[in-house]
């Protein structure tokens, strides 16, 4: 496959000066349209499926559904685990499969139905995970449930659920019964719109066998064949490997294309999409957090290079099944100080900058990323702003959620961005955003009635001082009259965390305080909407963009 060099991803110019250029000039030509702006951001996931139907879980899912013009896909672990449905950190259960005294299967869909019902009633779609192993089918069931807590060894979570099936026929029949039940409950057309996947990070902790690749492929052969048996038009894929597992991905693709299928005896296995994970790597150094976006982009780059090396699967959908600044959503900042970025605007600006660069890499390779799952949800009944990687705390939205609200207002085709810009995907991969310059850049789109530009001011170092002056020029605007909306995430806008701190960081806010925080967590305008006149198709506006701030400038016209 002919891949464009990453150094010419877009018309960025690398600046070598030792101070932020003033102003940063950004030009967007409304006629320089690229392909459709794929809503890769409208995908979310979490470990704890039982939070789904709890009070704050339902509220957050409603907000996620409302912010997106397209159906939101949701991925959750532990959907097949044995247990009573109790929620805990990095744990969940549905008890869908048990056996009687004679080893006969007992199917119980009550809990998993309540999870999927919560999605479907909000017009969301499951990224339905076939995982993990029910206790009665595990090759090593004791101990089965873990009781891990932040600060303890992460490997403690890998108990009986993380083993392969002792009886592939019973396991396959369970999958068949589940898919068939979903068709009966939700309808064939609805289930055809889902994605079915096998397991999670089998190359890492999540599959407790010596030959992880061989066992995973056998499990995939059985799972994919069974899903297709229940619904031939279903979409099934994998392998959801960790970011460093490029060789596992290569071998998996080759297996699906060329090797013997352990379930059918034929050559190859069906796969309708491919999935991998991409994570950053923050550290706590010199008394502050330093992010590691380069690690996340390297993961993306590594896997896109592998996928694009197979010309026979050109355009296959790709899902980044977990796409985050680091790896453990349930590890709070008190036990893991490198995660102190999560409550405030560092998480917001990182998310804006990284999503745009993932789109750049996808464009450069000519691949087809359809989703980048933000692995953060909410943790029910936990301390306020504890520092979990989450979108909301106790029903109050964090600043990062407002980035997704901004993205939800960006539709149509992506527009080219040019200017005296310091960073692109390749030089972030090479050295991160760690020099004297911050990453001031934009993602832009155009539909029939609007132009939208998301601006950010990001740096890997968690420092708030230092703003950039941005001179934004829009050209070839197809109207003379328009309304300009300017939304902002910063210390003073769309930021419930700062409001909570000003309240004295209450551990149990009053009803009045809660209402104030709830309002503060919503996306806010920086200024009132402004009627503007476009002359010669051009509009120039100057924006003072604080460090870690994100702006959305939206020009709406008839």
TrEMBL record:
Residues 25-520 form the Glycosyl hydrolases family 39 N-terminal catalytic domain. GO terms for biological process: carbohydrate metabolic process. One of its GO terms (molecular function) is hydrolase activity, hydrolyzing O-glycosyl compounds. The keyword Ubl conjugation does not apply. Pfam families: Glyco_hydro_39. InterPro entries: GH, GH39_cat, Glyco_hydro_39, Glycosyl_Hydrolase_39. The active site is at residue 201. Keywords: Glycosidase, Hydrolase. Belongs to the glycosyl hydrolase 39 family. This is Xylan 1,4-beta-xylosidase. It comes from Filimonas lacunae.
């Amino acid at each position: 496959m002919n891949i464009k060099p990453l150094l010419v991803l877009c018309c960025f110019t690398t600046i070598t000066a030792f101070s932020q250029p003033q102003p940063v000039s950004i030009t967007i030509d409304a006629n320089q349209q690229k392909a459709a702006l794929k809503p890769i951001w409208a995908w979310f996931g979490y470990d704890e499926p039982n939070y789904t139907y709890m009070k704050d879980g339902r509220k957050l899912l409603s907000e996620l559904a409302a912010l997106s013009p397209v159906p939101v896909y949701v991925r959750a672990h532990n959907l097949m685990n044995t247990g009573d449905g109790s929620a805990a950190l990095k744990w969940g259960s549905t008890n869908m499969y048990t056996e009687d005294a004679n080893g006969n299967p007992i199917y119980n869909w009550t809990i998993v139905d309540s999870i999927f019902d919560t999605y479907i009633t909000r017009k969301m779609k499951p990224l339905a995970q076939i995982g993990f192993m029910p206790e009665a089918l595990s090759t090593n069931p004791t101990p089965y449930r873990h009781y891990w807590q932040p600060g303890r060894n992460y490997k403690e979570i890998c108990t009986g659920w993380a083993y392969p099936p002792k009886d592939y026929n019973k396991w396959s029949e369970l999958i068949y019964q589940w898919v068939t039940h979903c068709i009966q409950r939700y309808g064939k057309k609805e289930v055809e719109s889902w994605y079915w996947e096998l397991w999670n990070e089998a190359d890492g902790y999540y599959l407790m066998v010596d030959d992880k690749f061989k066992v995973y492929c056998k499990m995939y052969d059985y799972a994919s064949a069974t899903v297709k048996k229940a619904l031939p038009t279903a979409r099934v894929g994998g392998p959801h490997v960790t970011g460093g597992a490029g060789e596992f991905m290569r071998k998996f693709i080759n297996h699906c294309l060329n090797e013997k299928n352990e379930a059918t005896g034929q050559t190859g296995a069906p796969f309708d999409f491919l999935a991998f994970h991409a994570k950053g790597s923050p550290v706590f150094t010199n008394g502050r957090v330093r992010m590691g976006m380069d690690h996340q982009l390297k993961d993306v780059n590594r896997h896109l290079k592998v996928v694009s090396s197979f010309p026979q699967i050109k355009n296959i959908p790709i899902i980044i099944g977990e796409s985050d600044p680091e790896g453990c959503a349930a590890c709070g900042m008190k036990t893991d100080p490198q995660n102190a970025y999560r409550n405030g605007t560092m998480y917001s600006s990182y998310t804006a900058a990284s999503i745009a660069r993932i789109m750049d890499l996808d464009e450069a390779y000519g691949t087809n990323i359809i989703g980048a799952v933000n692995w953060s949800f909410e943790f029910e009944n936990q301390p306020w702003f504890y520092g979990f990687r989450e979108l909301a705390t106790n029903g109050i939205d964090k600043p990062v959620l407002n980035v997704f609200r901004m993205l939800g207002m960006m539709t149509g085709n992506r527009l080219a961005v040019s200017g005296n810009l310091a960073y692109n995907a390749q030089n972030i991969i090479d050295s991160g955003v760690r020099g004297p310059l911050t990453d001031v850049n934009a993602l832009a789109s155009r539909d029939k009635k609007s132009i939208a530009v998301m601006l950010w001011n990001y740096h890997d170092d968690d420092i708030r001082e230092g703003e950039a002056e941005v001179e934004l020029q829009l050209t070839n605007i197809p109207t003379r009259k328009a309304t300009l909306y300017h939304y902002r995430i910063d210390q003073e806008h769309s930021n419930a965390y700062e409001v909570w701190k000003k309240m004295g960081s209450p551990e149990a806010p009053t009803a009045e305080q809660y209402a104030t925080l709830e309002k503060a967590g919503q996306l806010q305008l920086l200024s009132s909407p402004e009627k503007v006149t476009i002359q010669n198709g051009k509009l120039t506006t100057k924006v003072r963009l604080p460090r870690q701030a994100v702006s959305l400038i939206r020009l709406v016209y008839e």
